[in-house]
């Protein structure tokens, strides 16, 4: 049995598939976040040092992971579009950017609300916080650059160059807590060391991360469908779809 | 579901007031969760509106094309 992957590389065939996938991942996101919040508020114990303030972790860490991961996925699609000049790749990159910016903002926002009671300050210009702020500006820059160029193919190319150059910021964010002396603590989860937090805390955080991940896929696919309708408006299949959904 | 939630709050937090107080960190904890929820809902609403306006424009365009025929 062989699957023709290129079948789904055209917007016309991808559009209905994206709709089904968005719905499925949306349901999965709702389920995972429900379980994750249950674990976070009803199963995970109170932290010995931080009391209940630590419960921000269940959205802060998953949001921060997603902010970096989505940037890599966005840059991957952008790079693919630049290399192979495929229409769908640029659409996927554009579809991911606002959701990536959302999670970057949430990582900064929840981090600020966590920093005030635990560090005594809303903000500090340490390497971790500053590089995450730069990530937010990279997302905004990508979106603004694409919005400023009328021709979608040229907008995709310009955005792709920006996205690929910005990839250098991701390892800087991730390793900032190791490379520099930061107020921000080190990595919460490490592959090489035994977990330093209660298993239920870790599980709750992981389940929330899956929830955010599924949500990101659903949101990006929904946005990709909008972009397809906007960009392919001259094509017959879009006209047919618009008539059928009226 | 609602009953299970109430039961969960009672068993784990003693009372709804305790749960909402978050050990004195209510502003920080709920400030994080409510803004997250609000922005996620806003994104979904904006996506739905964007699709609707794209389809409305397409239909307008289609109708104009048919009249010109």
Keywords:
heterodimer, A: 246 residues, mainly alpha, Four Helix Bundle (Hemerythrin (Met), subunit A), 75% helix, globular, B: 69 residues, 3 helices
Q: Give the total of beta strands of chain A.
A: 0
Briefly note the structural class of the backbone of chain A: mainly alpha
Total domain count of chain A = 1
Amino- and carboxy-terminal Cα gap of chain A: 38 Å
Instruction: Give the largest chain-chain interface (CB within 8 Å).
Output: A-B, 38 and 31 residues
Low-confidence sequence ranges of chain A: none
Shape of chain A: globular
Kindly name the structural category of chain B. mainly alpha
Give average pLDDT of chain A, whole number. 92
Structure description:
The complex is a heterodimer of chains A (246) and B (69). Chain A contains eight helices and no strands. Chain A is an all-alpha fold and 246 residues long. Chain A has one domain: Four Helix Bundle (Hemerythrin (Met), subunit A). The longest helix of chain A is centred in the N-terminal third of the chain and has 33 residues, at 11-43. Chain B is mostly helical and 69 residues long. Chain B has one domain (2-68). Chain B is built from three helices and no strands. Chain B has helices spanning 2-13, 16-21, 26-68. The longest helix of chain B has 43 residues, at 26-68. Chain B is elongated. The interface between A and B is medium-sized, with 38 and 31 residues.
């Amino acid at each position: 049995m062989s699957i023709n992957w290129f079948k789904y590389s055209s917007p016309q065939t991808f559009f209905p598939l994206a709709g089904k996938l968005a719905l499925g991942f949306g349901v999965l996101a709702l389920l995972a976040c429900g379980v994750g919040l249950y674990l976070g508020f009803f199963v995970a114990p109170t932290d010995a040092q931080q009391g209940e303030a630590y419960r921000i972790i269940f959205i802060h860490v998953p949001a921060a992971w997603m902010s970096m991961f989505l940037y890599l996925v966005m840059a991957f699609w952008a790079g693919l579009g630049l290399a192979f000049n495929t229409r769908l790749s640029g659409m996927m990159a554009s579809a991911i950017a606002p959701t990536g910016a959302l999670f970057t903002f949430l990582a900064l926002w929840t981090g600020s609300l966590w920093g005030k009671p635990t560090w005594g300050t809303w903000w500090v210009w340490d390497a971790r916080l500053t590089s995450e702020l730069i990530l937010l500006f990279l997302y905004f820059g990508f979106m603004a650059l694409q919005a400023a160029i009328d021709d979608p193919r040229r907008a995709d190319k310009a955005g792709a160059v920006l996205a690929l150059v910005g990839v250098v910021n991701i390892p800087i964010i991730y390793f900032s807590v190791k490379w520099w002396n930061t107020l921000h603590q080190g990595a919460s989860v490490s592959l090489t060391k035994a977990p330093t937090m209660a298993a239920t805390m870790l599980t709750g955080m992981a389940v929330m991360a899956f929830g955010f991940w599924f949500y990101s896929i659903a949101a990006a696919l929904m946005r990709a469908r909008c972009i397809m309708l906007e960009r392919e408006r001259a094509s017959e299949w879009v006209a047919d779809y618009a008539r059928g959904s009226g | 579901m609602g009953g299970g939630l109430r039961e969960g709050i009672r068993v784990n937090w003693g009372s709804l007031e305790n749960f909402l107080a978050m050990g004195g960190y209510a502003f920080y904890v709920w400030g994080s969760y409510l803004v997250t929820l609000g922005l996620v809902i806003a994104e979904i609403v904006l996506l739905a509106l964007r699709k609707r306006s794209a389809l409305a424009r397409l239909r307008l365009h289609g109708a104009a094309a048919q009249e010109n025929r």
